[in-house]
Amino acid sequence: MNRQLYSPLIFELSQPGRRGCRIPDNHLPLADDFLAANLLRGEAVNLPEVDEPTLVRHYNNQSTNNFGVDSGFYPLGSCTMKYNPKINEEMAADRRFAALHPCQPDSTVQGALELYYDLQSALSEIGGMAEFTLNPYAGAHGELTGLMIIRAYHNSRGDLKRTRVIIPDSAHGTNPASAAVAGLEVVSVKSYPDGTVDVEALAELLDDTIAAVMMTNPNTLGIFEHNIPRIAKLVHDAGALLYYDGANLNPMLGVARPGDMGFDVMHINLHKTFSTPHGGGGPGAGPVGVRKGLEQFLPNPRVEKLADGSFRRVDNPESMGRISSSLGNYAVAIRALSYILTMGCDGLAAAGRLAILNANYIKERLKDLYLLPIEGICMHEFVFDGLRDKSTGVTTLNVAKRLLDHGYHAPTIYFPLLFHESLMIEPTETESLNIIDNFIDVMRNIAIEASNDPETVKSAPHNTPISHPDDTAAALKPVVTFDQLQRNDS
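RESULT FIELD:
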């Protein structure tokens, strides 16, 4: 382990006999008075012994090692990391929401069900779909749900031979994974040199075994699929459905709707487009929408509005089933609706256009120093193929690590797999011009530094707690306990 700027672990701060709290006597029987011997520990658990000031300072200092959108610019391509307005957090934390239980009778949670209904209606309007469910817990969970809906649709028609899904070679990695989990065979279709789907190659793959074609528009390279009307017709003429991966919905807000493009099923990443928390394994949300005629296949339960204006949860016998315990991550839905209502139609449309403007501005100001494999207007994100000057030996990984020294989180690197040195940048609409200009200046300085002093870039970062960990060893033999760390150090 690199000990430069190393922050001690809580175990290393431990001193025998110190304590930060005192638990009062409760006069209850000890565990060993009523628990079986095989359920008791053989020896005392190894907990650190620290006083309260040490404990508080330790975790406050540790928190400064975490990077997030509240602490700096996070230009992570493909996985939008936009700033989360704090009003959304206040709404989600309101005790009148936070204290609800998912099994309460519908009559006692009418406001909550109305919020759910309003959000699914808003998403339907934004996506050009007939109805949405908020039940999926994350984007990939939404993909799986959408594919299960597609399978349920084909099965309802007795079309059981449709067991394959066509996915572009530029797709997000979760697309083929979700298809495989859904029990479907993945068929890859190649792209044109401009990064869009090869329509002729797609047409040759379409037959009566294809259940769906999964697409992202704009695609993973940040390029709008201008052949989408032709693709939609080919897919539908073949009896298949068209699935929209909503990971890149941001630039489409107020500009174009997936339903109007011909998509039948879509998911939306609330944590990417509608400003709810992202990262750390959750919570997330991946609502799924369907065109008219597919509503009955949405997962149970659904929320419907009755003639008297009240709301209820219902189960549909034709549904693809349940994919969550209740109505998904409800607090995330609260945040998303708060964001949508705060922004309004005009605000959402402005966000989409600003996402496009910011990305193109950065791309144009850096393409003289970074290799741009596909010229032209991008949407909300774009991909460089590393530095233009390849003679220095400075890689995309080196550039990403050098950015850390300047206080920026690195963009996505080595994805998509279409280019050897992919560096994917998405600025989002929430960053100001001065922040973007500062980022551009740093990126330019790193490129110039790579030519003049390549070793400084190759050895970066220089001011982080850990500089160059062994990624392979970390994956194969992770150190997750203090005991392991002690053994490794010895």
